Each structure stands twice: as C-alpha cells, then as structure tokens.
Amino acid sequence: MVDTLPSLAFLGAGSMGGAILHGVVASGIPVSGGIVATNRTPVKAAELEGLADVRSIALEETPGGNAEAAASARIVLIGVKPGMVADLLAEIAPHLRDDAIVVSVAAGVTIDAFRSILGSDARVLRAMPNTPATVGRAVTGLAAADGVAENDVAIVRRLFETVGSVVELPEEQIDALSTISGSGPAYVFLLIEEFTKAAIGKGFSESDARLLAEQTFIGATALLEASGEAPAELRRRVTSPKGTTERAVAVLADAHLDTVFAEATDAALARAKEIAAGG
C-alpha cells in the first residue's frame, strides 16, 4: 500500500473536493510537498485555513491561483462544476508538471474530454465518490485513462481511500456505478423517510419515530459490517418461522422490490446517458 502521497492541488475545494481534502488531512498520511486548495471566494478559502500543511487560495484575491496551484502539485484534482471544467483545463494546461496526474470528480465529463485539452498522453483518472465522503465512508469508482501507470493509479487510489472504499473499473461502467453508489444514499434516505412515516402511523411521536427508524438502519448496517455475513443470512436470522418479521417480509416480497430497484437504477442510467449526450 502507498504510505505517502505526493504534492496535491485541489482546484475547486467545495463540498466534494473539500471532503476529500479533509479526509487526507484526517488520515495523517504524509503528503510530501504539501497541499494547495483553491476556492472562488475568501469566505470559502477561509474555511480551509488552519488545516495542517494546507495553503488555501481565494481566486477573487489571486486570479492566477489555479495555475499556481496546478504548477506546484503532482496530483491535480478537478473539483469544479462540469460546465467549468473545459475553461479550467485550458487555464492550467501550460502549467502542469510533466509528471502530473489529473483527477476528475466532475460528473459526466469523460476522460477523452480531458485529454482533448490536456493532450492525448495526459495522465488522467476519473473518480466518482459519493456524499458519505464527508464522513469518511464513501464508495469511490475510479477509472484510469489508457496508458496510466499502475503506480500512478495506486497513488490516486490511496488518496480516495482516505475517505472510504474504492472500486477500480473501466470508464464505461462509471455511469452504472453512479446509479448504485452515487445515487444510493438517496435511496436509503427515502427508505428511512417511509419507515419513519410508518412509525408515526403507529402512534409514535415524530422524534421517537425518527430515532426508531434511523437508528435501526444505522445499527443494522453496523451489524452487517461487523459480522462479515451476507445480508440474506442476517435477514434469515431475524426472521423466525411463522413470526411477525416473516409476515412483514412476505408483504415486502409481494411488492416485487427486486423489480422496483432494477427499474429505478435503469432509469438513473438512462438519465446519465442523456446528460452525457447533452440532454
């Protein structure tokens, strides 16, 4: 495992980029050469000041800050909105180091789009973390451009492991991954919402209903992680023959949840393709 990271630049250290930056700092993994982060406003930049080995730049005060940051780093993470990526890449391209690794967390922007601006031999990786990165429990899909060295991929993998788990995959699977781990937190939150409503319907106060629903999900997933067992096996252990849980699970099975989740993720994938096509 990579036990140190090279110099890092976070261009657009907003919610996702900032979460990854905080993950690196919190992990304690050494960063040779330090970390530079850019944000548009002094207010946003101030949120990162005081973090160990981090230099935070406000672009409103330092207009050339992105180029300066990119020139200083081996790994350059692009965290701006997708519509801003092309202009940012054109700005930093002349300043990138020869050994720079450029990593995108911009949804829908392909590796080919990056290389069309940075050059066909640019070391580019495309990453898709999900929102639990903010609490260090992300799942990140990681796809590398053709020709990127295994050691470079390992370095970027280690970067994202500071905020959770990493799955390496070909770029053509990134959109499919987004329908599972990317959108997945929303599915879980929806289930908790509905479970809470069911508890309120049974006469519990809203606060007690939330506690019952939320802590049941949190506790169940903690048990799943700690046990190492498959979800189906843990479900079997809770479901006593001819008991109350068995009756409830039968109702859920009759709702054809397998079809519902397949259709939901298919719909998300179709929309991802529409967005990629400019729709």
From TrEMBL:
KW Amino-acid biosynthesis (keyword) present: yes
Molecular function via GO: pyrroline-5-carboxylate reductase activity
Residues annotated to bind NADP(+): 11-16
GO cellular component: cytoplasm
Record keywords: Amino-acid biosynthesis, Cytoplasm, NADP, Oxidoreductase, Proline biosynthesis
Binding site residues for NADPH: 66
Biological process per Gene Ontology, one example term: L-proline biosynthetic process
Enzyme class at the top of the EC tree: oxidoreductase
EC number(s) on file: 1.5.1.2
Pathway: Amino-acid biosynthesis; L-proline biosynthesis; L-proline from L-glutamate 5-semialdehyde: step 1/1
Catalytic activity: L-proline + NAD(+) = (S)-1-pyrroline-5-carboxylate + NADH + 2 H(+); L-proline + NADP(+) = (S)-1-pyrroline-5-carboxylate + NADPH + 2 H(+)
Location within or outside the cell: Cytoplasm
Stated role: Catalyzes the reduction of 1-pyrroline-5-carboxylate (PCA) to L-proline.
Pyrroline-5-carboxylate reductase catalytic N-terminal domain segment(s): 8-108
Name under which the protein is recorded: Pyrroline-5-carboxylate reductase
Boundaries of every Pyrroline-5-carboxylate reductase dimerisation domain copy: 171-274
Origin species: Microbacterium pseudoresistens
Recorded family membership: Belongs to the pyrroline-5-carboxylate reductase family.
